[in-house]
Amino acid sequence: MASIETVLPGSTVRTTLGSLGAAGVYLIRSGEDRILYDTGHPGRKKILFREMGKLKINFKDVNYVVISHLHWDHALNVSLFNSSKIIIDKKELEEDSEDEYPRVSLLSDYIRQLDVRYVSNGTKIADANEVSVISSPGHTAGHISLAVRTGEAVDIITGDSLPNARAMHRGEPDLIFFDKRAAINSVKAILSYKPGIIYPGHDSPFSLEPQLTYLSEIKFGVTYRTEGEEDYDVVFSREPSKKSYF
Q: DSSP E strands: which ranges in the chain?
């Protein structure tokens, strides 16, 4: 039976200085295999090392690294896993648009030099046949999600095809760089599995039955350092607003 653990939590955080790029990174244990879904970016590398250590996983222990798509916040740390098999849809390497600003085009050439396994809808990953690819284009041309059988239920790791609970209610992701109709169909395909838990690209994991319920607290901190070398922390958490500022 496979299991899923959160390595790096995802969050949709935008500031006047730009996006903080906090994509969810997930570890799947299936039999003897260790499968990482997305890698995050170098700004989260220190935390990635720390959290992998807590899970007692060495980077070389990761058999497969699934790249959902080539946006910087999801894929830039792939260089840390050059001894792993890299799972990606070939269309993600071939399609390149000037309007797709989060994409890192140089990654295409780098990944081609690694031990790449090209996949399509339904491809099984690992020997236990508990993990399979869901083709989920729309956000990008070759975006892929994963269906993971964790006992009776099938859980879905969705990446940015369904980045948060808002996107599920809306029926399409926040950002679409390839094809809106495909993006809508990808959300429908994911929900057709009747997933036990959804592990999204930029939100905390949540279950849908009997109602939408988050599995963990949504909370993060921001530190500001003054000219006097003093740190001031601001902590954000998900709570209903008690006042209106407008």
A: 3-8, 14-15, 18-19, 25-30, 33-37, 64-66, 85-88, 115-118, 124-125, 131-135, 144-150, 153-159, 197-200, 206-207, 213-214, 219-225, 231-237
Which stretches within 15-159 are classed as H helix? 45-54, 72-75, 90-94, 106-112
Contacts of 186 by beta carbon, 8 Å cutoff, 6+ apart: 135, 136, 137, 138, 139, 143, 145, 161, 162
Q: What is the DSSP letter of 126?
A: S
Joined tokens for residue 22:
């906090």
Are the C-beta atoms of residues 136 and 179 closer than 8 Å to each other?
A: no
Other beta carbons within 10 angstroms of residue 191's beta carbon come to 15
Amino acid sitting at position 62: V
Domain range summary for the chain, segments of one domain joined by +? 3-218
Residue 92: pLDDT above 80? yes
pLDDT band at 164; cut points 50, 70, 90: very high
Residue 244 has pLDDT above 80, yes or no: no
Q: What is the pTM of this model?
A: 0.92
* Domain 3-218 architecture: 4-Layer Sandwich (3.60)
| Vertex 70 angle, CA 67 and 71, to 5° | 120
Q: d(Cα 189, Cα 183) in Å, to the nearest integer?
A: 10
- Longest alpha-carbon distance in the chain: 56
SS3 88: strand
